[in-house]
Amino acid sequence: MWQLLRPDAVNALESENVKKALPRYRKILIKKVKAKFLKVNLKEKVEKAYKILNSCGLCERKCKVNRNKTKGFCKVGNEPIISSAFVHLGEEPMLVPSFTIFFMGCTFHCQFCQNWSISQWFEKGKIITIKEMAKLIDEHKNCRNVNFVGGEPTPQLPFILDSLQYVKSNIPTIWNSNFYMSLKSMNLLKNVIDIYLTDWKYWNNKCAERLSKVKNYLEIVKRNHDLAFKDSEMIIRHLILPNHFNCCTKPILNYIAENYGEKVIVNVMGQYRPEYKAHIYSDIANYPKKEELEKAWKLAEDLGLNWIK
User: Fold this and answer.
1) Which domains does the chain have, with CATH numbers?
2) Residues 279, 249 contacting (CB under 8 angstroms)
3) FRET label pair with 87: which of 3, 46, 141, 146, CA 20 to 30 Å apart?
4) Mind listing the pLDDT tens digit for each residue in 66-82?
């Protein structure tokens, strides 16, 4: 597997990015410290998480359905459903090889979603038991991490915590999320996650409501980033949307620079493509222009961010 890695991934743990922002993650990989989930009382967290399913408030939609009887906005019920689980070689260089579990369903309806077949249930998905998930994680202990993603992992948080009770390997955990978790979920994740891999899409609530069908985006996502920064290490992804530099990209990067500095890695992503329903919206119906990408990357550089692209 290692011989298949990109050149930038092989020695990524020695990079300045990692030394500045992910020192504890590096220590786990060189066996100097244990992953957080191995040091916390997961039984108590699991009990609390399953109770939330009786009136679900895992995300900030708080649809309050009893997921033991029906499904929430995310269309997830009371058992873990995945699309796939495999060794991912396409993540950030310091993360690969990453054992990535793609969960079905999402708390957003992003009109440009690149994983729309998973997030919006165009795939059927498959049920996996708690112990099967734990076994898969242990079988991939030679990867640099286990990466919980989707779709969105938040609706499946009780099952993820439950499975970690049975994992024996000292493997870092990654929470790969849109960051619309409720405070209850943030408290459940506290002291469990080694790296928060976040997706900060918008600064403008109007953009979020129009393009992802979600309310109060900025207040919630900003709050959760601040909490995650205090709890653990963090990589923030920002996808450069066409025509959204002034309303979203610029203020997001400014906020990161002012509040987190070099203590986080920022992936300023230039790979937007108009997927799913993006063609309906004139502002995002095309690829970003070269000038837009270069302006975003220059801003990241000028702000002194610990950034990659």
Assistant:
1) 2-233 (3.20.20)
2) no
3) 46
4) 999 999 999 999 999 99
